[in-house]
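I am still getting used to backbone structure tokens and would like to learn alongside you. To get us started, please write out a protein record for me. Start from the sequence, derive the backbone structure tokens from it, and show both lines together. Once you have written the record down, we can walk along the chain together:
***
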Amino acid sequence: MTITGSAATAQRNAWNAAFHELGLPWFWDTGCELPDCGAERACVRDYLVSHQPHLLTVYDADFLVEAILATKERCEAHSAQAGGDLGAAIDWRELRQPQIGI
């Protein structure tokens, strides 16, 4: 099942908020298909193996997958509680820019 429209944007925002909060330098762009609920764990594990293999030398893969999924779910719940526009587009590339003085 493919999620589209503002529901897809809200889910993408939750994923990207989790990656951002955990300091992982990656985000789901609007052109990338989001994983369906059944494939989330596999997608996160593939991401770790492909883009963050150094983390797997220090942390257990299952621990990292759980941390990312738990953070994503918490971000999703927080956004829903805040009552804002869950489908509002956020420029995650802009948030990834290095800050002067930090």
